[in-house]
Amino acid sequence: MIDDYPKVQETVRPIFHADRLLPDRVFKKRYNFTLLADFDYVFTTGLIKIVHDNRFCDKTEKVLLSVRDPEPISYFHKHFDRINSFYFGTDITEEEYIKLLWRNPGNRNDALIFNSETVVWIPDNGRWAIWGERSREIAVIGIDDPAQAEFLLNEDGYWIDAETAVAEFAAMPYRDHKAPEDFARPLIENYGSRKDLERKLDEAGIRLKPGIWADE
Fold first, then answer.
1. Is the separation of the CB atoms in 66 and 120 below 8 Å?
2. Which of 136, 129, 130 is CA-nearest to residue 171?
3. CB-based burial of residue 168 (10 Å sphere; 0-12 exposed, 13-18 middle, 19+ buried)?
4. Which of 44, 85, 191, 213 could form a disulfide with 66 if both were Cys (CB 3.0 to 4.6 A apart)?
5. How confident is the model over 108-131, as a mean pLDDT?
6. Secondary element (H or E) of residue 182
7. Percent of the chain scored above 90 by pLDDT?
8. Residue pair 154/166 in contact by the 8 Å Cβ criterion
9. What's the pLDDT band for 95 if we cut at 50, 70, 90?
10. Angle, CA of 144, 88 and 29, to the nearest 5°
């Protein structure tokens, strides 16, 4: 765990609007691509796939994982004299990463695996960043490199545009599995429709594998 909170803030502040939540635009930078995936997938297996791929990170880099809610100072530092943020190397194994999520900060129920409502991941290179909200069941990645988008869409296969996400996993927390309009509309406006993604992929010369969208 990191005790140097100012260092964490210096990393997070240029990337994210700390006072915002989904469906608002949480990224300060306007990335060329913003893709969504299920929070629980990204929190565990999905994140490891990203940091192990050389399109996202090299082997010497570190990645910051920082819990933003519960609040680092008023909750974690107050109760445990530390903050729930970590730097880990991109050579971390999936087993090591899962152990990190289960690490006890002073109360077992406050390990990341249980008590992490809003989480961010930021690599040293700053070429991508992820914002995740557990109760919304959504993680959003911001990227500029078309090769990264192609990997997430065609090889990983769990990332998709906001419009499709709203019709699938992003609707799960709501009654009848239907996201309310006042959440769905701004999420799509801020993170992109299927048409937006198709246009950007076409401009980048990327072809998607069949079956990416349910209606294919």
1. yes
2. 136
3. middle
4. 85
5. 95
6. helix 181-191
7. 78
8. no
9. very high
10. 25
